[in-house]
Amino acid sequence: MTANKDDTWKCVSRRGALALMTGTLAAGAAALGPFAGATPARAEMLDVEKDELKFGFIKLTDMAPLAIAYEKHFFEDEGLYVTLEPQANWKVLLDRVITGELDGAHMLAGQPLAATIGFGTKAHIITPFSMDLNGNGITVSNEVWAMMKPHLQMGADGRPVHPIKADALKPVIKSFKDQGKPFNMGMVFPVSTHNYELRYWLAAGGINPGYYSTTDISGQIQADALLSVTPPPQMPSTLEAGTISGYCVGEPWNQQAVFKGIGVPVITDYEIWKNNPEKVFGITAEFAEKYPNTTLALTKALIRAARWLDENDNANRAEAVEILSRSEYVGADAEVIANSMTGTFEYEKGDKRDVPDFNVFYRYYATYPYYSDAVWYLTQMRRWGQIAQPRDDAWYADTAAKVYRPDIYLKAAKMLVEEGLVKDDEFPWESDGYRAPQTEFIDNVTYDGRKPNDYLKSFPIGLKGEQTIDGTDVVGG
């Protein structure tokens, strides 16, 4: 979305007005002397080093904090003139942040980590802000759903019992194999949350989703299900064409399959890992160093936007749906977006269930960039061979601290508290950056971010210890 001249004037005028307010209040305080009292904190604007910014995003509902920060003038409140621009795909988005064509972007949580360790493009990317929890789903074609149903447990109401595990998909894949047909599934990017969530779900059901190696980056070594990249908006049409038999993607593209009658979402990522971290806002480390006040200002605006999205028990979600449905943002039918953004999720057509936390933007400290979230993604990169060599626990911790920046986040949060715009108890001030061990995974495996190698050893499928990929074989102890 490109801002016009009126928007520019609006932003400049707002900055001018705030500056005038600051000067007027300061002059008044000086005139009144010791009886003046404190000048309102809101009059103190950060002296941003760069006020004209361009941010990128992919057309998914979880870009919402960016849209809301723009539409509700939270960026302007911080003296920032922002342009939001949709990107063709995740690779283009990352490349444009690295080259400086974009100042920052809505990113897959794995992108800053992968870039920083040099998997794919090499660049030091950081995140001061986590954009949301949950928000993804796994959808299969009608044909696959019909083949899965005989293997599902059905409730007294005649509906499938959730969560649906990949155990029910295993005989379907065997049937495809017996017919000499590959079982193809789509995910959005090799280091996407979707790739790791889909792999996690498949492996929990005894299905090998395949390995990467330094010489084979297809991710399909030893795979029972063949995973490949499909851009999010193209998922439904690719499924309908029969090119893939299922996919993992964010909204609204699972619900789109329901509305089009071409597929059935079988599980949400909330059911795979309750309140899992999803997207982040990424900037280069160079940007953060060169423009520290600008980085704080944009983080403040995004925190306010996330809060607006969740406040008063999601009271603003209907308005958010209308905003996101616009062509400059997600551009999907409001009815489709509302199906998940307003606390429900529709699986098989007509099987709509309450999932109040399908999209979380602020609750549960959702915006805090936890080191342990970063470590989880790194463990999955190692599990599937994207990190080819074994690493000790200290490496995981050090890498997480290079990329996830709770120090910047908390500094921005403290300013908002002092300005009276957020509440003190909405932030984990005493956190060391690690969540307590988490247990609510579909396979009941406990994750402790302080012990990544022990975590990897707990999985029957996946690299662990000294194991590496040699050709098409897993070797080592």
Automatic annotation (TrEMBL):
Residues 1-29 form the signal peptide. One of its GO terms (cellular component) is endomembrane system. PANTHER family: ALIPHATIC SULFONATES-BINDING PROTEIN-RELATED, BLL4572 PROTEIN. Its main location: membrane. It comes from the Bacteria. It comes from Breoghania corrubedonensis. SUPFAM superfamilies: Periplasmic binding protein-like II. This is Nitrate/nitrite transport system substrate-binding protein. It is found in: Endomembrane system.
